Amino acid sequence: xKRTILIINLFLFFLQGLVLLGAAxxxxxxxxxxxxxxxxxxxxxxxxxxxxxxYQSLFVDKDPRTxxxxxxxxxxxxxxxxxxxxxxxIQNENSRPAIVFQSPAIDxxxxxEFIRTGDASLANxxxxxxxxxxxxxKSVSAGLRFVLDTSLGENSTNHFTTDLQQxxxxxxxxxxxxxxxxxxxxxxxxxxxxxxxxQSTRPDLVHFANWKRFNDASWKVSPSNGRNFNLLPYSIGxxxxxxxxxxxxxxxxxxxxxxxxxAVASDKGFETVGQSVTGDISQLLGTAAxxxxxxxxxxxxxxxxxxxxxxxxxxxxxxxxxSDEDLAALESILAKxxxxxxxx
Length: 344
Description:
The protein is an alpha+beta fold.
């Protein structure tokens, strides 16, 4: 039995290594984006500990293939990254990383731009724009589905919340619903996705359901509001969110484009969305003293102070004794801030 477990673990490790091959990383502000060329998928991370440069994934990243984009072209579905009809490449034009899927009849570009939401000083999310270009000789009918394998909220009663409601079971939101965004969060971090925001495209359907139901379907899953997030016997409490943009005609040579916003959860949602200040956090912290622009240095200090305040609030709310490790981390950050400001 032990030998079997060891073989399984080695096999899983090997598969994970294959997934990481061909990955391209892009960082800006507190966000790291990883594009996986061999699978046509992406991963997104948020810098939760500036001092240690520690990132946390915003959705499932052990196997990025569990989140995917699929298209429906003239009633035939293609899962991008899995379909042999498309060649995959990574590009980075005008500081906008993208996964490009190419076929003789249609090209799909999944492009990313770093953004700031709410009161964030540096990038805390991305705008994902997916463009379908009709290269054929006649018009085609094309729709798009984006399935995101969320994870942060799966240990909570409510796997998701929106600005209007809590979601503890399967739910489908149509274009008639007024919800503006959804959140999947744990005790320390939350992922927020747009539903109806000014810089995103309003989907025809946003469906919260068991991940395997989405994964097993070639296109839409029939909504069953109130159903739990289980699919027995193997998929227990495994939730996901799917965006649907219904098929629409794309004339010859024309482009259909849709945008989705993904960012760290904020009480203000996507009320304000701006471009990120150029530069990732490691560059800001690693620059020699006296050479950092004053504005970027100040922004970094404010982020660190905000992290200290959040940690203190968490300790006060928990009403538990502060661990020596947490206390040492707080003292280290405060000492670094004091040292930086004393040198100015």
